[in-house]
Amino acid sequence: MTITENNIKQPIGEYIQNWARKHSLFVLAYGTGCGAIEIPPTMTSRYDAERFGIRGAATPRQADVLLITGYLATKSLKRVIRVYEQMQDPKYVIAFGSCTINGGMYYDSYNTINALDRYIPVDVYINGCMPRPEAVISGFVELQKQIASGNAYNATKYKENLEWYRENQKKIIKNWRMPDYNW
Amino acid sequence: MNFFDLKGLLQPLGAVKQLGKKPHTINYPYETKRTADRYRGLHYNDLEVCIGCGNCSTICQNAAIDMINIDGITAKNGDSGLRPRVDNGRCCWCALCVEVCPTGSLSLTKDYIYVTPDANAFLWTPGVSNPDAKNNISFTSDTNLSLSMYQRVPMRELDGMERVKSFAEVVLGYSEEEARAEAQRCISCGLCSNVCPDHMHIPEYINAIAQGNDNDALKIIYDNNPFPEMCGKVCTRRCEDVCAIQVRGEAVAIRWLKRYATETAPTAQKIKDIVNPIIAEPNGKTVGIIGAGPAGLTAAYYLALRGFDVTIYEAQSYAGGMTMFGIPKYRFPLDSVKKQVEYMESIGVKIKYNTKVGRDISFEEMHTAYDAIFVGIGFQKAWTLGIENEDIPGCIAAVDYLNIINRGDSFDVGKKVAVIGGGNVAIDGARVSARYGAEVTILYRRRISEMPADWEEIEGAEHEGVHIAIQTIPTRIIKGENGKVSGIEYLKAEMIADENGGRPRPVAIEGSETILECDTVIGAIGQEADYSWLPESFKAKIEIKRGMMIVTNEFNQTGDPKVFAGGDAVNKTADAISAIADGYMAVKGISKFLLGN
Amino acid sequence: MEKETTLYIGPQHPGITGNMMVKLKVTGDTISSASTHVGYLHRAFEKLIERRNWLQSFTILCRFCVPEPDPMELTYARAVEEIEGREVPERAEYIRTIVMELARIQSFMLWYGGQSGSSGLYLVGQWSVGDRNYILDLFEDLTGGRVYHMYIWPGGVRRDLPEGWKDKALKTMDYLEKRLDEYDKLMFDSTIFQKRAQGVGIIPKDKAIEWGVVGAPLRGTGIKHDVRIDEPYCAYDKLNFIVPTQEGGDVWARALVRRQEIRQSISIIRQALDKMPAGEFYNKIPNPMKWSIPAGSAWVKTESVRGEVGFYVESDGSNKPRRVHVKGAAYTHGVTVLEKILVGQNIADVSFILNSLGVCPPEIER
Amino acid sequence: MDNLQIENNILETIKTAFKVEGKVVREKRVEITAHKQLISSILLFAKNQHNYIHLNHITCVDWIEDGEFEINYIIWSPTTKNTLIIKTRISRENAQMENIDNIWDQANTYEREMREMYGIEFPGLIGEHEFILEDWDEMPPMRRDFDTLEYATKTFYQRPGREDAKDVREELTKQSGEEIPEFAKKYSREK
Amino acid sequence: MEDLAIKILGAVLTTIMAFTVGMFYGGFVRKLTARVQNRRGPVVYQNFIDLLKLQSKTTNIAHGFMHHMAPIWMIIASLTTLMFLPILNGNLWFPNISFHGDLIFLLYMMVFGSLGMALGAGQTGNPNSAIGVTRGLSQMVGFEIPFVMSLIALMIQYKTTSIQDIMIAQNESGIWNMFSNPFAFLAALFAMFGMFRYSPFDIVGAPAELASGPVSEFGGKYLGTMMTANSIFSFFKLTLYVNLFMAGAGNINDVGIVATLIAIVILLIKTFALYMVPVFYGWVSPRYRTEQAIRYFWAWPSALGLIGIVWALI
After folding, report:
1. Which of B53, C9, C253, D158 could form an SS bridge with C22, CB 3.0 to 4.6 Å?
2. Which has the closest alpha carbon to D160: B58, B89, A125, B81?
């Protein structure tokens, strides 16, 4: 039995699962960059992201969404990869602001990465430096759309192309003192 | 621990009353909060206003702005044809690009939401990506707030009534401080260089001045212009017409800055010391040049630098051509050209004075003697007015008049002078006459806005008390009792729109004859070249059309590959900088022709 | 004797302010030693500024400290003005004062959220961080930016006050004052909060200055030190305000100091809005690409929420700064001071103390 | 100059005690230039005798042209509210500076940072070598001869799609055929 | 046979009801919390969505046997405890295997779930979990004392350990225990703060301190199962309290559908009202430190419990 919505055909079980995933996004509390300053306003009373079922999760095990809130220092990148790999499928990454797209204002810094999607797969990019709460919510709405249509499968891509990602990651993280993969 | 502090334990429960309050949550995305009137969101660029100066791209500390070609926008004078594209993967919404935009075309809008899963989709061409955003502009720059400096550092000048008392230079030049301040205004876009006939390296030398390296500035200037002092004083400066700052303010005073740079080298020796030109080893090729005007001298200078053996043939007893005696002293002192020629001679340019080609030496002779010939004869003969009594005493062509005055000979202009024409030469004639205490009237066929002379000149003339009678067509000169001029009769004209869409023509009004009393009539309606030196046998190859020599390529080569030409006789614009440019291009052509590089 | 275990707080941890790590050696619930590890946010600002010219630097500088960017802008502007000898119009000084105090308030609101949230009182955080948006709205109207304002630049401020802004600001201040009373009832009147905060994270008064403690934590030990009074800048010498101090040096004293300061800030804003003269707001700088500053150096301090922010700016006469070195309060607070005062504390209080010191990791590593 | 009396007094005292150069920069700023061997004694003197008990800042400026690092110690006195800046220069080659974290504990942080960022050694400095960076094996990054853009371009991926960018000046010269001589290019617009 | 069938059916119904009610209460609390925080908050059935999502996540963590067992243990423990609790007084449909609900037995059973949790969390090796477990057990020790005291007071008062008997006694006398023995009730109420782990006693999972404490390493289905168990368990706790101190669902012995429904509604009202007490207090309280929390339980509430016992004796 399938169900069709917005021209996308899905088996009903998957449809329901996606519907639940879409409306319940646990966001990992990890402020990786400047953009973290707009997370509290998004989560609190004025913008109230909980309306969309978005709430904070304290540990990567419980989280669905990893927010990369801006630039990533190479030292942070290592932790982010670790955190990302600890998260359980299905998991999503939302990248905030210019820095994650093409380096932003730190494009010439020796300590920040430029393009996030070389190191971990990204589902949604939000424009801004930094994105306002409205933009953040738009990002979540876009993510929800992707989840509902069953297209948010970037985490699978990561597993499939792990070698490529690893190569990129190891180019920057010179001393790889991590378990090689920790699903 | 105080367990009995019931107030402290229970009072916070008062917060429960907030349950009844309406939440202040913004129900985005179902409702949207108003964005501030000066919010800095995505870029918008008014493509029509933008001139592609690229200042936004330069100020961007994130290297976020690229200048790219856009369909439908082509380069033209004062527009590079490029438009900014913002990489939103770099932009930090600081809006410095808006603050420095000289035209004010770039602004930020209230839109800020752009969400996509595609990381490569963040290249944003303002104005193309969001053509409708014009009504949504928020953060803009106006001339008061912009970081572009729209106010020119004022040039110190003699007062109008003070000027007419002598032939002292009107413009006093920038002091060092003023020059640095003025040079700082330049945004180094290079739109000016593009329209300069000679393509001088304007951004570079202005920057050198701004940084306090006047010597480097002079060196850069001498790279392709050996007459900077003249250009610094009397250039027609098309560069300033396209200056990016000029769109909303006063153009950078490029001419005055060049003048400032040249003032640091008052003698030929000083010039040589500063410019320190590298003279190539003689390459054994000889070049003959006809006419020691700007074009000829330029060609000679750069050819000499490249190791050619250069000889100039000049009919007059002095070098410099029209620039020597054709410009009044209050604009351009006489010793300037002398200094320049002295400098050129010091690096090996040979000039044969009083040697008129066609009289003292034949063109055929030259043609065989030299490996290449450059013709820079200029316009020598003034056009006649073509009206009655033109040849009587008291009626004189402006070029002749200026020549006489500048040589120091005397000419009695009388009490009242009429000048016919609207070009710079006419104004020069008028202002010189004003310095002799005459009451001067300029008769011009069209309106003031259509006068080809520089507005500064026109203004200067007006300040000095020159009256401009517009829309007047002289019909005859009135011969007085002593056989001299006593007045001029002219018709009033009205401007009739041209059916073909051209500019309006002045048409005389019947019966509107007016007589203007005057003692001297100065005709300044143009000059032409004299081609009597050119043998008929060459005229087949070297084409002359409407008094102009025709060149076949950008190197100013004529139909005869050995003969190059430049200056007024070739160039319609007929100004010194074009002549210099012609000379410079011919040097390139001759090098290519003779040396193959 | 219980076994000593190692506990890492951060970098991914809900209790950490920003992105840093505190490595704790714990015996039972008691911390026996602590060390701060930073570098997760190092963006090499000071290196990047060497590549940018004097004006371009100002856009990057505000990112030094994310929760409170304005003092950074101001300090830089003042340092440049000092080296260059550039005058600032009086109106600009008043506008700067207002911006500084608004920044202080919004940062305090965030601190309310952090301090209460780290103790489990989420309600105050929800309120104060929500209400903070009204101040950000004011900023947005004034500067065009919500968080990074890039508004105060050398020579003055970028834009004048927009129409009607003054009334809006006053209204917001009234609203805030009302709301602050409600926060107080929940936080400062609550017995449990008092119990949590009193006697925790004590900075000894006699050591405080030598340890490099500044700002509210220093005032919390009873020492009156405020750059706004010691070396007045902007329009502070023309306005009346008091610098609150508290004895004790613990989290509670620091909280009380902040509670009073936020009210002082509101009063300063009202005064400044009232006294602000008309006129120019900006002493225009020359073409930024060619703007060189005479050689020289300046050490300029500004009072931010966390304490004094100092900029050492050195110019070699070119159009780019030779060196801009930033010393934020967190540099000492977050490393040496934190490592000292955490010893002997309960692990439950780590995040609590971090918040009360106002540790801002991006300011430490820059 | 009455209002600078305190500043002048301090300057004079230190000048006479250590025979060093110095000046009063402005109100509440006194600047002293000293040889590097004098630094710790001046700091101790200022701390103990003049109550400069607060170490504000230690900063390092790289004067690569002179082959020297300039280290500035900025200390502050709560009694006079005065700031004393002590400058010293050390050679860039084998840069070494005295460790002062026995005078102020928090100097430890500054020195660790300088060791990491400039490669200045502080004999006797305790603390992990890695303070901010991790696994860094290039030249200390804050040295002026380290080119951060080059390193970033080499190490981090640059997103493609911007290759069609044109330089305005270059494009214009292409249109007009202008040839900018080499020696003038340094004055062309910065890219 | 028929009896057994009804019993099984009743058990299933009880479970469903406990689960649904528990989850909805969670949702209501979230909504109300949001409102008090001046925001809109999620939909009331948000907890169901969360659960559905958690159950549809993959779970690839393996820390050991107990780690896998912990959620199962928890859900079994909460179901078992629920089964031993009379939901509706004397109602045919919800008697469960109550043997009239033995308090002492239940007291043991209630610890059971937490114990499983503790074992599971201990095995994850996450220091946050370990500390969380320690804290949880300490806190349990803390609140168990006043709780047990108040139960002893009740047992003394009614000379029975049967919950059903206590309910019937209240209904017969018409005076709820919260009035007849207010001290015992207050002691139990304070213990309830600790049981529900709302502020100021949320020291176990304290996010700012211990990430999420014992459950740090549990995600996906495990977390979902735990959530279910918790929902059921909170319904159990509320019902237990209502049974003990507020006369259960009232004196309705009719087995008719309507009467049953009325009884359920009464039960829901009472439990919800009771639930609001720790919730309200949780909104406005910061968190205690562990030792403060324990000291707290051992002081006032224990004293009240003692008074309650004395009161009951008198």
Report:
1. C9
2. B89
- Could you tell me which CATH number the domain at C43-365 has? 1.10.645.10
Please list every residue in chain A whose beta carbon sits closer than 8 Å to the beta carbon of residue B24. 45-46
Ordered domains of chain B (ranges, CATH): 43-139 (3.30.70.3270), 162-274 (1.10.1060.10), 279-379+529-595 (3.50.50.60), 382-527 (3.50.50.60)
Model's pTM, two decimal places? Answer: 0.87
Handedness of CA B477, B483, B485, B489 (dihedral sign): negative
Separation of alpha carbons E68 and E57, rounded Å: 15
* Overall average pLDDT of the C51-59 stretch: 87
CB-nearest to D109 from C310, C325, C331 is: C331
In chain A, which among 78-137 make CB contacts under 8 A with chain D? 78, 101-103, 107-115, 118
Among A79-88, C95-104, C250-259, the least confident range: A79-88
Inter-residue contact A48 to E41 (CB < 8 Å): yes
Torsion of Cα atoms, C128 then C131 then C132 then C133, to 10°: 140
Judged by DSSP in three states, B472 sits in strand
CATH number at residue A30: 3.40.50.12280
d(CA B129, CA B237): 37
Query: What is the mean predicted confidence (pLDDT) over B378-390?
Result: 77
Q: How far apart are the first and last CA of chain C?
A: 41
The pLDDT tens digits along chain D (191 residues) read 457 788 788 888 888 887 888 888 788 888 888 888 888 888 888 888 888 888 888 888 888 888 888 888 998 888 888 888 888 888 888 888 888 888 888 888 888 888 888 888 888 887 777 788 888 888 888 888 888 888 888 888 888 888 888 888 888 888 888 888 888 788 888 76
Chains near D with 3+ CB pairs less than 8 A apart are A, B, C
Residue D1: per-residue pLDDT: 46
Contact B99, B66 (CB under 8 A): no
Assess contact for B41 and B138: CB atoms under 8 A: yes
Confidence of residue E101 (pLDDT cuts 50, 70, 90): low
Residue B168: the pLDDT is 74
Q: Per the CB < 8 Å rule, is A47 touching B28?
A: yes
Q: What number is the ipTM of this complex?
A: 0.85
* Contact call for D28 and C44, based on CB within 8 A: no
Enter the tokens of residue C170.
């006053």
Q: What does the block give as tokens for B350? A: 């040979």
Contact C312 D72 (CB under 8 A): yes
CB atoms within 10 A of CB B504: 13
Chain center to CA of B314: 28
Could you give the CA distance from residue E187 to residue E301 in angstroms, rounded to a whole number?
Answer: 5
How many domains, chain D? 1
Q: Which residues of A touch D151 (CB under 8 A)?
A: 110
Q: Does E have 3 or more CB contacts under 8 Å with D?
A: no
Closest CA to C120 of C193, C35, C36: C193
Candidates B150, B165, B163; CA nearest to B457 is B163
Domain residues for the domain of D51 are: 2-180
- The domain spanning residue D41 has which CATH number? 3.30.460.80
Q: What is the largest CA-CA distance in chain E?
A: 58
The contacts of residue C55 (CB under 8 Å, 6+ apart) are: B59, B96, B147, C153, C154, C285, C288, C291
Please report, in angstroms and rounded to a whole number, the separation of the first and last CA atoms in chain A: 32
Which residues of chain B make contact with A46, given a CB cutoff of 8 A?
24-26
Whether residue D148 and residue A101 make contact (CB cut-off 8 A), yes or no, is no
DSSP state of B188: -
Give me E217's structure tokens: 């390493």
- Residue with the larger pLDDT of the pair E226 and A177: E226
Closest CA to D122 of D76, D74, D90, D75: D90
